[in-house]
Amino acid sequence: MPLGIKAAILGPGEDRPKQWDALILNHLNKLYPNEYSKVASHVMMGIYSLVLAKTKLMTLISNIKTIKVKTGFGGMVENKGSVVIRY
Description:
- By secondary structure, the protein is an alpha+beta fold.
- Helices cover 26% and strands 40% of the residues.
């Protein structure tokens, strides 16, 4: 991975999830052209969840919900917790 790309997607920032999505999907599309699509993604501090599905199955996926549950310091801080994606 070139240093510019690595520096752009690591560390804090609001655009990081979108950059990870693009990086992963671009790589998959090189291996399997247009075979996979993003269902959903969600981030909580260092936890990043991305769900992909075969593009031909996307019409079967509905009611997508994402949530993060903070459990650190009485549910106020994201140092512990979980990311959930439901469909």
